[in-house]
């Protein structure tokens, strides 16, 4: 690094920090070999709070933890065993069917199941997108009004302006529709089956998301594109649906699901807290995040949300067509993926927003030109199997994709802002590229 000295007679301090290509490459190697190698640790059971704090939280290093959410199940020998929690959309619909399809269970062994079925989930706020990409920048073609030259005849006001098409990037949010859980499952699967058949018939690749251009329409037209008419279901099958709410939805909007119990209890389970389908929190994680303060806070109320527990617990539902935008969270993130198939399906989570195929693609020249330092990034691909828990440290940029229909449970714990990491991160956010600074300040 070099320091530009202050010139005589110059009242402005124009000192700056400079990093050469060799220094950036050295920094990249340090990150790769000292901090975050490509193969992150995998634990067969939850680590102790001390090990989790020392090896992961304090150094902001991700890991995968197995058997962190377990539930009792009866095996072939009619014995109760503990297995990782596995949930599907079919399981959720069976627990919370629509009112019109609710039936009363006659089996004495299904009391808990019948109790859950007697409750109803509220309508889901489902995100509807053309291709599974929501909350992201999109290329949009808009009509721009351009004024004529002064020499032109302005006697006719209708001819005083020219309508010209132009493209721009805008941040687009998905359309929200309310529907039941069963309706969401129906439209999700019908849409996937229809789009798979269309792809097989066309026998050609789809257009890359970065190359697609959408048309801008006014709000009145947008409201009528998907409505409760005869074409409503047809339109939904041409879209990609997913459920993603970052507002503590599992404990608030979906509280009947959050408070539901396991269907089959094991006599070996002594704590009533283990009767819940979803754990209220993870003690080993709380102690690592907040120290010993959570024990005192838990004594204030039973099964209530405490300041030592997660700030939010969210549920995510979708399939392989949904791809999240690259983003970061100001939370310590514990994310459990739950799918149920006979074969092992891996969920690829790219912690820096690119998979290997895209990293090796020559089509990224435009992105490298816009963000020249991105070529020094250290992308890591983490594959998470059903029933495994991914610890994603706060402030890590990441993008998530799936390989099949997936349910995810997301526990968010507040990050520690009184730390060197936040200070460094906040400082780096305020730095500007030299060219950008010259554009903003021509002087």
From TrEMBL:
<protein>
    <recommendedName>
        <fullName>JmjC domain-containing protein</fullName>
    </recommendedName>
</protein>
<dbReference type="InterPro" id="IPR041667">
    <property type="entry name" value="Cupin_8"/>
</dbReference>
<dbReference type="InterPro" id="IPR003347">
    <property type="entry name" value="JmjC_dom"/>
</dbReference>
<feature type="region of interest" description="Disordered">
    <location>
        <begin position="98"/>
        <end position="121"/>
    </location>
</feature>
<dbReference type="Pfam" id="PF13621">
    <property type="entry name" value="Cupin_8"/>
</dbReference>
<dbReference type="InterPro" id="IPR014710">
    <property type="entry name" value="RmlC-like_jellyroll"/>
</dbReference>
<feature type="domain" description="JmjC">
    <location>
        <begin position="267"/>
        <end position="428"/>
    </location>
</feature>
<feature type="region of interest" description="Disordered">
    <location>
        <begin position="187"/>
        <end position="207"/>
    </location>
</feature>
């Amino acid at each position: 690094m070099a320091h530009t000295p202050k010139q005589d007679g110059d009242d402005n301090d124009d000192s700056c920090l400079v990093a050469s290509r060799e220094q950036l490459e050295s920094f990249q190697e340090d990150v790769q070999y000292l901090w975050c190698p490509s193969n992150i640790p995998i634990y067969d059971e939850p680590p102790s709070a001390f090990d989790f704090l020392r090896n992961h939280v304090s150094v902001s290093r991700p890991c995968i933890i197995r058997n962190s959410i377990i539930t009792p199940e009866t095996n072939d020998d009619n014995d109760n065993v503990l297995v990782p929690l596995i949930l599907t959309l079919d399981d959720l619909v069976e627990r919370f069917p629509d009112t019109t399809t609710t039936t009363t269970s006659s089996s004495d062994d299904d009391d808990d199941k019948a109790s859950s079925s007697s409750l109803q989930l509220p309508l889901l706020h489902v995100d509807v997108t053309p291709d599974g990409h929501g909350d992201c920048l999109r290329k949009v073609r808009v009509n721009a009004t351009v004024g004529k030259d002064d020499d032109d005849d302005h006697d006719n006001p209708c001819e005083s302006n020219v309508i010209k098409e132009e493209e721009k990037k805008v941040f687009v949010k998905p359309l929200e529709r309310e529907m039941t859980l069963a309706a969401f499952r129906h439209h999700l699967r019908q849409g996937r089956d229809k789009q798979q058949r269309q792809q097989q018939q066309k026998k050609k690749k789809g257009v890359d998301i970065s190359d697609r251009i959408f048309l801008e329409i006014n709000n009145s037209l947008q409201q009528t594109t998907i409505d409760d008419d005869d074409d409503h279901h047809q339109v939904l099958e041409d879209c990609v649906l997913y459920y993603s709410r970052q507002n503590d939805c599992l404990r608030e909007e979906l509280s009947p699901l959050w408070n539901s119990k396991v269907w089959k209890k094991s006599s070996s389970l002594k704590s009533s807290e283990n009767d819940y389908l979803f754990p209220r929190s993870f003690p080993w994680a709380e102690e690592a995040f907040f120290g010993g303060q959570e024990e005192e806070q838990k004594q204030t109320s039973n099964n209530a949300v405490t300041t030592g527990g997660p700030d939010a617990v969210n549920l995510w539902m979708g399939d392989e067509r949904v791809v999240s935008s690259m983003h970061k969270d100001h939370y310590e993130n514990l994310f459990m993926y739950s799918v149920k198939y006979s074969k092992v399906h891996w969920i690829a989570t790219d912690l820096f927003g690119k998979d290997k195929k895209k990293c090796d693609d020559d089509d990224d020249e435009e992105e490298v030109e816009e963000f020249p330092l991105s070529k020094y990034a250290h992308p890591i691909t983490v594959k998470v199997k059903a029933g495994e828990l991914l610890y994603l440290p706060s402030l890590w940029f990441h993008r998530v994709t799936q390989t099949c229909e997936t349910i995810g449970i997301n526990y968010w714990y507040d990050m520690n802002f009184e730390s060197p990491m936040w200070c460094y991160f906040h400082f780096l956010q305020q730095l500007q590229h030299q060219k950008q600074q010259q554009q903003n300040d021509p002087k």
